[in-house]
Amino acid sequence: MTFALYAIPFFLMAAQASSSGGARITGRVTDAASGTPINGARVTLMMVVDVPEGTFGRQRRQSITDANGVFAFDSVAPAQYQLSVEKSGFASYPDVFGDAPIQRLTVASDSKDPQLRIALKKGAVLAGRILNATGEGEPNLQVSALKRTDKTGPLGFAQTGQAQTNDLGEFRIFGLPSGDYVIQAAAYRHDPFGPVQTGTTTLAPTFFPGALDKNAARVVTLAAGQAITDVEFTIATVAAFRVSGVVVDQAGRPSPHATVTLIPDLRTSGSFLPMMIVAADDGTFEIGEVLPGKYRVRANVSEAQGAGGISGGFFAFAESDEVTPSDPGVITVDDADISGLRVVAGRR
Fold it and tell me: How many whole angstroms separate alpha carbon 89 and alpha carbon 29?
């Protein structure tokens, strides 16, 4: 999911019970620069529920602002809600990776219509071109705008917008909130049902202006509505390796059609995205185009093994010479292929 979010903070109050049996929530969305109402903004109201495992949303409802920027929700049940607003050309509310905490709207059966006021700022734009080693534009790359934040992950940056390069290697990411960004280009990984890629080199995730290390990336600062359109750099080509082995169950029998996943350690690996493959009928697997780095190996046993595919299951650990007793399931890919992994998978 892509986040491109920003808005003027507003005070959340409880909402008033309507005659239809439930609360009524109304509000108005305006342009922060001009104060004019924003017509056609999509406002989403989502109930949020906290459980021990985290927070999830339910009962999503939408309203489109009218010519006066007004939106309304009727018959809203008592609960806690989060409100989001999206409009093309603007950075949406809320900025989930911004400095301010994400506010909740508490709806009670006897409280008043808050008549919310939300002011959106213009979204910023990053655009440019990604080249390959021959100096030509590289198509079909995923280009990500990673915003500096202290809210998620060990990297200190979170993906806030993305785009795919066209046949000329050009990209354009829009609707970004103001802030500090690094830009990364990466090739799409093969799908787990497709053929294994066995090339000796691969395109590596590369940061502007051409660095493999995030710490060497150039930070780009964007103001609201600013457009930087001259971003250009070359995506790196590096050595690629293969990881192979067999998935077995707790009794040591092959687990056909299990899904094997390599999850990169973001501090040491060139890749950000997990790599997956579906094991063969005899439980064997091979993942190609693996970048150097440290990975955790996990096996997911499908409930319908005969049909293959990806479904819920239990993640276990890997057994191989590459795995240390203190950190089971972790392998290090450096200068050679890894084979002979024995991945033990269980099921709930």
Answer: 14
CATH superfamily of 16-120: Carboxypeptidase-like, regulatory domain (2.60.40.1120)
Task: Find the angle CA(10)-CA(12)-CA(17) to the nearest 5 degrees.
Answer: 140
pLDDT in tens, 261-301: 888 876 655 566 788 888 999 999 999 888 888 898 988 77
Fold of 124-238: Immunoglobulin-like (2.60.40)
Q: Which residues contact 74 (CB under 8 A, 6 or more apart)?
A: 18, 20, 22, 24
Given the DSSP bridges, would you call strands 116-122 and 22-31 parallel, antiparallel or unpaired? parallel
- Are 52 and 44 a contacting pair, CB within 8 Å? no
| Inter-residue contact 114 to 14 (CB < 8 Å) | yes
Dihedral-angle region of residue 266 (phi above 0 means left; psi in -120 to 50 means alpha; beta otherwise)? alpha
Contacts of 84 (CB under 8 A, 6+ apart): 5, 43, 44, 46, 92, 93, 94
CA nearest neighbour of 73 among 39, 64, 37, 8: 64
